[in-house]
Amino acid sequence: MATSQAFLDGVKARRSIHQNTDKEILGQDELITPVSDTIKYSPSAFNSQSSRAIILLGKAHKNYWNEFVPQNLGENQLKAVQKRLPWFAAAQGTVIFFEDKKVIDEYRGGASAFSHLWDDWSNQASGMAQINLWTALEAEGYGVNLQHVAPMAGEGFKPMFNAALKVPSGWIVQAELVFGYPDQKDLKVKTFIEDSERFRVDGA
Ligand SMILES: Cc1cc2nc3c(=O)[nH]c(=O)nc-3n(C[C@H](O)[C@H](O)[C@H](O)COP(=O)(O)O)c2cc1C
Question: Dihedral of the CA atoms 169, 170, 175, 178 (nearest 10)?
Fold first, then answer.
């Protein structure tokens, strides 16, 4: 990259777009590159490479959102999610992010001075992969939103979720990134706190 401008333009343009259709922007083969590259090249503590993903397209994507009834959510949370489930089903695909607990546990044992930090580092590594993919897909023209339906749904939901998706043992679900052809008419204008509250410069 010659300058950071193209990257910053992508960072600034990224939004949460909840209403999308399944009109294709990238075909299945073309989609694999941004998904695999962003996850592969995103950093992880000690290069532990703990992030994993399942890419749902076509029927697998539709089934996920049409048939998975979230359990163990509070009443308000459930209502909010249920309103949005048809929007998610209407989109082109979902990337479900996981962290491989076996990898994290190995590293936790190996670097004992940091052992209490590994769960945080695992979450952070996953978040870095998520934001890189989110930004990359929106740069391709997709509308994208980040969901935590499975991770929020609690223990009762997990066996059903793991069996339906054949999730390898030890993969812990983190988040779902839903993407499609943007079809949102009422995107809220985003507000920002003052930069002076956000950071300061110390050049001394
Ligand atoms: C850690 C994290 C968790 C989030 N979880 C959800 C979620 O479960 N559902 C959702 O619709 N948006 C979720 N979001 C998106 C935020 O609500 C959104 O990024 C924020 O309101 C700013 O709007 P923007 O994405 O349009 O810039 C999450 C964002 C972050 C960083």
Answer: -30
pLDDT over 90 percentage in the chain: 82
- pLDDT tens-digit map of 85-142: 999 999 999 999 999 999 999 999 986 788 999 999 999 999 999 999 999 999 999 9
Mutation pick for ligand 1 pocket among 11, 15, 16, 126 (CB with most ligand atoms within 8 Å): 16
Which residue's CA is the closest to the ligand 1 atom numbered 30? Answer: 146
Which residue, chain included where needed, has tokens 């089934």? 63
Could you tell me if residue 195 is inside a domain? Answer: no
Ligand 1 mutation target, pool 17, 76, 126, 146, most atoms within 8 A of CB? 146
Number of separate domains in the chain: 1
d(CA 51, CA 105): 13
Please indicate, yes or no, if residue 114 is contained in any of the structural domains.
yes
- The reply to whether ligand 1 has any atom less than 6 angstroms from the CB of 148 is yes
